[in-house]
């Protein structure tokens, strides 16, 4: 943005400098929040247990603990998956079972984080 060959008006250069400064400030705030999240996750036993699963990091673990009902209310992992809407919808009639699309019930943010984590694990496994 500076130099002899720039043709931007000074107002545009000033605006660009302001935006770069804001981006740097936001980056610093994000880094501080990430450190705080990582420290909390390292101290919390439930976070550590969730993070032991591939694709689950500190942010996803904290989101699950913040937005999901207590884990004791689910009998097993399948019940939790059904609550998040990750299991296929079942349409059964006359003894004939058919599975449809995912139900997409439950907390949308948790579902998105879990899908993103699973996608990363699958891509990482495909590369290695």
Automatic annotation (TrEMBL):
The keyword Coiled coil applies. It comes from Rhodoblastus acidophilus. It comes from the Bacteria. This is Transposase. Pfam families: Transposase_20. Residues 16-43 form a coiled coil. Keywords: Coiled coil. Residues 48-125 form the Transposase IS116/IS110/IS902 C-terminal domain. GO terms for biological process: DNA transposition. The keyword Coiled coil applies.
